[in-house]
Design goal:
The complex is a heterodimer.
Chain A: H1 7-19, H2 23-34, H3 37-53, H4 64-82, H5 85-97, H6 99-106, H7 120-128, H8 132-142, H9 148-155, H10 159-183
Chain B: H1 3-14, H2 20-32, H3 34-51, H4 61-70, H5 77-88, H6 94-106, H7 109-125, E1 133-134, H8 138-144, E2 164-173, E3 176-185, E4 188-195, E5 206-210, E6 213-220, E7 223-229, H9 233-252
Antiparallel strand pairs in B: 1-2, 2-3, 3-4, 4-7, 5-6, 6-7
The chains are: A mainly alpha, B alpha+beta.
Chain lengths: ~180, ~250
């Protein structure tokens, strides 16, 4: 069509319209994954640059999971740079192996724990305290509002694993929440 | 269903991820198990707490700016300004989208004029709108435009040369009135739009294809002329050649 702008301008324009509305989501995930605002800013910036560079490979559908998957890769590179990657994944595998131990722990309380109100900053701090893989899954679900299928795509884990990580993450958050209420 | 299964699946239940039959299974288990009922209540409550609070972080304005700068823009400044505003708002309103299209189109005004010429041609082919004045006599068609439009279009009868004059019509392009002179070649209609101050002034005839129609444009005597037809390109060029020499002959006489 004669109305079309030149290739480069058109791509930048489509990218901006599609991707920039999700900047707060991308930045939020970066903040939770890296637990530090200046690293999160760098990661979000790098995410958008990579996303723009590879915008041709975006096959349509919701763009948010695609962006968050790129951000996650950027953050993993940052973990590697920090030299924490090896340690993290070891401790995570261990954590996933001891799921049963967790269930036994909670056997003690058959009645529902009604969680009290905590202010936003406190809840953010409690989430920050979760181990990487569980924090990531919880944030993708509760903050970024992704479906299990989308979380599986973003994290490269099977849906069943997403479900069990989420169960673990929520259980850990509940325990931390109760401890926080008792302590304060 | 065991408690262990239920304690994982109840999260999928809370999140609305379970199909109806699995949801019923989890609920049936919970109905018989106090611990799982308690878990379900606790985590439902937790999800409400989490949803009720703004736990998102807002990207700092400087970050937004630097990403905005980093994504290359090849278009002009006015378009850029608009896009910045467009992208900054989290709600993409229909009005913003509409004005964006408008700006993009305006950047290529000549293309939009060609598009309008094709639209006018298509409209003219619809029932009874081909001509306002139906006559094969150029001395009838030419005066008809007097008082209707602020220009005196060249109306030339080419019937003897294979292009039958069938009449004239007042039309609009770019919001301005233009003269449309209508010819027929076998079953093909040619709309010759004659306008002033609309579109490019061309030093040589230019042939373009827009939406499958051939458009031959040229400028002469202060007019911009645009012949639109589904006629083959060589025949449209022939039309232009004959029109041009007849017009020159008419001026010389």
């Amino acid at each position: 069509m004669a109305f079309e702008a030149s290739g480069g301008g058109d791509k930048a324009q489509r990218f901006r319209a599609a991707a920039l509305p999700y900047l707060d989501e991308v930045y939020s995930l970066a903040r939770y994954l890296l637990r530090n605002s200046s690293d999160a800013e760098d990661a979000a910036q790098e995410c958008y640059l990579r996303a723009f560079r590879h915008f041709e490979t975006f096959r349509g559908g919701p763009i948010k999971p695609w962006l968050l998957a790129i951000l996650r890769n950027v953050c993993r590179a940052e973990y590697a740079r920090r030299g924490a990657a090896a340690l993290q994944s070891e401790s995570l595998d261990a954590a996933e192996d001891c799921v049963e131990g967790l269930w036994t722990q909670s056997e003690a309380s058959p009645e529902a724990s009604v969680l009290g109100r905590l202010d936003g900053e406190t809840v953010q701090r409690l989430i920050d305290g979760l181990p990487d893989q569980f924090r990531e899954t919880l944030v993708l679900r509760e903050i970024n509002d992704l479906s299990y299928r989308e979380i599986a795509d973003v994290t490269g884990a099977p849906v069943g694993t997403v479900m069990s990580r989420l169960a673990r993450a929520r259980t850990m958050l509940r325990d931390a929440w109760i401890a926080e209420e008792r302590g304060s | 269903m065991t408690c262990e299964e239920a304690r994982v699946l109840l999260h999928a239940l809370i999140d609305g991820e379970l199909d109806a039959s699995h949801a019923r299974e989890v609920e049936a288990h919970a109905a018989t198990c106090a611990k799982c009922t308690a878990e379900l209540a606790t985590f439902r409550g937790m999800r409400q707490r989490l949803q009720g609070q703004n736990l998102r972080y807002t990207a700092p304005p400087m970050l937004r700016k630097s990403i905005d700068k980093a994504v290359p823009i090849t278009a002009g400044t006015s378009r850029r300004g608009l896009l910045q505003g467009f992208a900054a708002g989290s709600i993409v309103s229909a009005a913003a989208a509409a004005s964006l299209t408008f700006v993009v189109l305006r950047g290529d005004r000549d293309s939009s004029i060609l598009g309008e010429a094709v639209s006018a041609h298509l409209r003219s082919l619809q029932a009874d709108h081909l001509t306002d004045v139906l006559s094969s006599d150029q001395h009838t068609v030419k005066p008809w435009f007097n008082g209707r439009i602020d220009l005196a279009p060249p109306v030339i009868d080419l019937t003897g040369q294979g292009f039958t004059l069938i009449g004239g019509r007042l039309d609009f392009i770019d919001g301005k009135p233009v003269a449309a002179i209508v010819y027929r070649r076998r079953v093909h209609v040619i709309n010759l739009f004659v306008m002033q101050g609309i579109g490019q002034v061309l030093s040589a005839p230019k042939l373009q294809v827009i939406q499958g129609f051939n458009i031959l444009r040229w400028s002469d005597q202060g007019f911009n002329l645009m012949a639109v037809s589904d006629l083959a390109q060589d025949e449209l060029e022939e039309f232009h050649g004959k029109f041009d020499s007849a017009a020159k002959a008419a001026r010389a006489s």
